[in-house]
Design a protein that fits this description.
Order of helices and strands: HHHEEEEEEEHHEHEEE
Helix content: 10-25%
Structural class: alpha+beta
Strand order of the largest sheet: 5-6-7-10-9-8
Number of helices: 6
Strand content: 25-35%
Largest sheet: 6 strands, antiparallel
Distance between the termini: 45 Å
Amino acid sequence: MNAHEIAEALRSAIAAGEYPHGTKLPTIRQTAEQYGVSHQTAASAYSVLAILGMVRTDRRSGTTVTAGRSADAHLGTFAPPDLAAAEAWKPTGDGTASEETTLVRQTDTAPMTLPWVSDEGGFVQRTRLRSVDGVPVQHKLTVLPYTVAARKPDGYDGIPPMLAPVGAAPVKPPTGVRAADWLGWNVANTECTITAEPMSPEACAALGVPDGSPGFRVLGAAYDSEGRAVFATVTTAPLHHRVTLNIVG
């Protein structure tokens, strides 16, 4: 076997949960003996995993798994004329999914250039961390103008859902109603751009992987009927996860 074949075997084992997040991989010597290859070939395989952000190697403590089991960055179920049947995301296997809001803050500028519907009052940034069996698998940043974030559904007396602080119980729209309609955002269409590139320092820190690790960056920008951006999301997932969506009709 060559280094890439060994790396793929180990990557598959990590994605399947055979080497859980935070555990140690066998030593290079052990891996070389297992696959009948040289130490150099085994070391090269570990380097491939490190480049993918799946492991971190230290001369004193060995090679630690920094990735969790494989999970989907599921973009939703798209059905004309809207995505009322959307599933925001899900684990690939049978793991237990969880999500928490880790940051809510107001800023003067948006971290991305889009034709925003308004910038009066600045922008609101919300960061969520999604996990499977307690291991972070997705970092999601949502950005929207304060004037949009401050909107409340008709008859709703609480804090605007998009301004709810960290730790507040999530508020969801009625079944079958998409959040954009519930909040009166006048969303006419959404565009998604998926790239593979180094993850942001914030995403790397949240996901517990080395700085500069590569990942999927999914930019979803929602526009109103006049072509102005209403909100944007940036979902980041390590490369060994999947990005999926369903289109109905």
